[in-house]
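Sequence, please.
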């Protein structure tokens, strides 16, 4: 967390003017990771339609931060123009996220995946846009956004399924131990094996 805080501080202070390409890459990676995780955490709240109000400032701040890493100081209006390049994609994602909230638990998990993937895709596309001097055609940005979003969402959903399977297997193991079907040593060995498999 200290690394993220340090990067965030440097971005806010505009300390990337003389940074190497590797330092800029590291700063952008840190921003995209931090903001995607924050958007996913916000999306976990169960109330539909609240996400847009909470996630949009995270995404705007991330784009602004990436712009600063590349030496651009943009106001919120400029950021909104960049985000509008993605067009209906963002609106559609937000509507789907809100609709998913009407399905308890599974819907929330889907919303978390969508929030994470959308924010990640915005970060990746923003990085590409600013890295190339803001001269990237809008259709290329939209295409890149869709590709990145689909890939990240798929990865996140696989991770959720794996986490759910792991939790279920560990719960079954605990139940078997509580019922006296396995002793402490068997519990330890089987738990280590399950964790190793994942």
């Amino acid at each position: 967390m200290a690394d993220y805080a340090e990067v965030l501080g440097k971005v806010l202070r505009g300390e990337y003017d003389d940074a190497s390409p590797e330092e800029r890459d590291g700063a952008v990676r840190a921003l995209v990771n931090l903001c995607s995780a924050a958007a996913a955490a916000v999306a976990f709240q169960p109330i539909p339609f609240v996400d847009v109000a909470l996630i949009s400032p995270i995404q705007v701040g991330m784009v602004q931060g990436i712009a600063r890493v590349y030496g651009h100081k943009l106001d919120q209006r400029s950021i909104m123009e960049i985000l509008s390049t993605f067009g209906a994609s963002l609106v559609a994602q937000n509507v789907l996220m809100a609709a998913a909230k009407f399905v308890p638990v599974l819907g929330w998990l889907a919303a978390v995946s969508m929030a994470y993937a959308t924010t990640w895709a915005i970060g990746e596309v923003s990085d590409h846009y600013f890295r190339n001097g803001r001269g990237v055609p809008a259709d290329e940005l939209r295409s890149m956004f869709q590709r990145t979003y689909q890939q990240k969402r798929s990865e996140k959903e696989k991770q959720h399924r794996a986490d759910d399977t792991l939790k279920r297997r560990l719960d079954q193991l605990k139940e078997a131990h509580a019922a006296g079907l396995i002793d402490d040593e068997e519990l330890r060995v089987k738990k280590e094996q399950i964790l190793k498999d994942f």
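Helices lie at 2-13, 21-43, 51-69, 76-84, 88-100, 106-131, 138-178, 184-197.
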